[in-house]
Write a structure and sequence with these properties.
Largest interface: A-B, 40 and 42 residues
Helix content of chain A: 40-55%
Order of helices and strands of chain B: EHEHHHEHEHEH
Shape of chain A: globular
Low-confidence stretches of chain B: none
Oligomer: heterodimer
Largest sheet of chain A: 5 strands, parallel
Number of domains of chain A: 1
Strand content of chain B: 15-25%
Strand order of the largest sheet of chain B: 2-1-3-4-5
Number of helices of chain B: 7
Distance between the termini of chain B: 6 Å
Mean pLDDT of chain B: 88
Low-confidence stretches of chain A: none
Strand content of chain A: 15-25%
Radius of gyration of chain A: 14 Å
Chain lengths: ~140, ~140
């Protein structure tokens, strides 16, 4: 599958290592991550090479192309929120939102309270829980 | 018109004074702000409403879909505002206006300042007088 992985570029990137591992897990399972540059240390510099309008167009095109949206949302981000809202509002695709469980009271109500039928929010304590979640749910999505 | 005014609930609320000023401007132009509860009492949505997170999400979506337009103060970007904006632009034909103070420029994401969606307008301001003038030109004639 083609997967759009959302992770903040200009916001709090303190969960970057976890985000990187999520991308590794998805690739090890044979999936294509369209947005893998977001987990590089120089993601912001890469995005600055093109205009904000070009970034917007590129990201919207990837959202159209992807089969599934997954995001690490522990650090608040307008951009990742926008992508999740847009995909749930318009595309009928599934969105999985991962956040650090110890930050449950700090992340947005629109993450922890999301009742959209295509959205799953998952608070994790360790990367192994994410891996187990992905393995289980990707199999279900495939069927 | 009914206006959904978006502002961070659990995130950085340091632009609160400007946000309150913008709500007053919207009301002085004869419009109703559906999300005024965010400003009547400090952080009321989070602290004082005895609703589950899911109920708060559903209430937020209800206000969003009942409103005729979304106006957001996005100087301090948040996931929740991004979600609301993406959802409205993705699923409806409603117009969105995003306002940010000049000081926040470096933190503004490509999903807002690069946004080329035909229903989305982004406006950078320095003073509330500039916001008043902008909104007067856009929504000054309706009530």
């Amino acid at each position: 599958m083609k997967i759009y992985f959302g992770f903040t570029v200009v916001g709090d990137r303190s969960t970057l290592e976890n985000a990187r591992k999520i991308v590794e897990i998805l690739e090890s399972l044979g999936h294509e991550v369209l947005t893998k540059h977001l987990v590089r240390d120089d993601a912001r510099e890469i995005d600055r090479l093109i205009s904000p309008q070009e970034v917007y167009h590129r990201d919207m095109k990837w959202l159209q192309q992807c089969d599934l949206f997954i995001a690490e949302v522990s650090g608040t981000s307008f951009g990742v929120g926008y992508e999740a809202g847009y995909i749930l509002g318009s595309m009928g695709k599934k969105a999985w939102l991962f956040y650090r469980k110890d930050l449950e009271k700090k992340v947005s109500l629109l993450i922890t309270g999301n009742t959209h039928p295509n959205c799953v929010s998952f608070g994790y304590s360790g990367i192994n829980e994410i891996e187990a979640f992905i393995r289980t749910h990707l199999n279900e999505t495939h069927r | 018109m009914k206006i959904f005014f978006a502002f961070p609930i659990t995130g950085d609320r340091s632009s609160l004074e400007n946000a309150k000023g913008i709500v007053e401007i919207i009301e002085s132009l004869g419009h109703e702000v559906t999300t005024k509860i965010f400003f009547d009492k400090e952080n009321m949505m989070n602290e004082e409403m005895h609703l589950s997170e899911q109920e708060k999400f559903d209430l937020d979506m209800k206000w969003l879909l009942e409103s005729d337009m979304l106006i957001g103060e996005i100087t301090r970007p948040s996931y929740g505002m991004g979600f609301e904006v993406g959802y409205v632009l993705g699923s409806t034909n409603k117009k969105v206006m995003l306002l940010y103070h000049r000081d926040g420029h470096g933190k503004i994401t490509a999903m807002s300042n690069g946004n080329t969606h035909p229903n989305c307008t982004v406006f950078q301001y320095n003073t509330l007088d500039e916001v008043r003038e902008f909104l007067q030109g856009r929504i000054g004639g309706a009530s």
